[in-house]
Amino acid sequence: MNIYLTLDYELFLLKPGNNIDFSLINPTFDLIRILNKYQFKAIFFVDVGYLLALNRQKEKYPKLENDYTKILNQLKYLESQGHEIGLHVHPHWEDCYYNGTEWKINLKRFKLSDFSKEEAHDIFTKYYHFLQFNFQNKIISYRAGGWCLEPFSLIRDAMKETGIFIDSTVVPGAHYKSHTHSYDYRHFPSMDCWHFNEEPTLMDETGSFLEIPCSPHKLSQLYYWEKFINIFFNKFQQESNGEAIRPTFFGVLKKLFFRTVDAISIDSNKSDYLLSAFKLKERNGDKHFCIIGHPKCFSAETYKNVDDFLVYTINRGYTITTFSKSLLK
User: Fold this and answer.
1) CATH of region 2-327
2) CA angle 181, 192, 35 (to 5 degrees)
3) How far apart are CA 203 and CA 192, in angstroms?
4) Alpha carbon distance 93, 13 (integer Å)
5) Cβ contacts of residue 238 below 8 Å, gap of 6+?
6) What pLDDT was estimated at residue 329?
7) What's the pLDDT tens digit per position in 100-139?
8) Is 252's pLDDT higher than 80?
9) Contact 56/91 with Cβ under 8 angstroms?
10) b/e per residue, 71-80, with b = 16+ CB within 10 A?
């Protein structure tokens, strides 16, 4: 089985927070220290919109220049150690700016489908070229921000032009709707990997694109009840600074009363389900297992559960690998 540990390298999207050491740099290094013990590698999907927003204003604000330098230095170090860099697109950064104290966030154009086809194409290629310029290895993979891959026609030509042929956005069976974005993957193939050409919903063995979806599992409503109660009684302590996009009222109700399909994740206490979810996929005979994580959401549970999972994979003869190593042999 090919096991991929994929990280969305980004800040919180509603309120990013100002301390990138706390929310991005340090948790990334904490995870890398665990991976180094077993010589495993991860895939980092870099939020290029944020990097470009820093780049636009870094000459005006020394703090932004410092943040920009720290992030690029960390990412270049990760690449030099054999970790893989992928493209992650959150286009709302086109409309955001720093006022000297904090980021002023505008989420009205959160996803690429909020732009025209020409604009979406230009954003995708601009982000790709900026990222590729800063790294030595060819970037071959993409993950849409907020899991908003559709309509794929907006970026199909851009992916072909840039040579990106792997998408890792889909969470088979998952669906979601909020004030800013929505996705519905209930009509996608329920597989751990497939080729496609025109649309990722249509499998094509000769297709030029490859979908490696985020491995899904059904998350119990008990998880959300525990989280809801902790928030209600002010017991929940966020271990990263910033604020995520809030779900809708009906979205919260759905999670509290129904089992929901979610991506297998190492974020905070979601990581408690990592090993049991993997064992189920193992029994099913899956050939690909793709885990997602966000450094901004890491906690002490993350590191413990990841370490336990890595020990299990070693004892079973597995390795954590990258797309390049597993697919471009």
Assistant:
1) 3.20.20.370
2) 85
3) 12
4) 9
5) none
6) 58
7) 999 999 999 999 999 999 999 999 999 999 999 999 999 9
8) no
9) no
10) bbebbeebbe
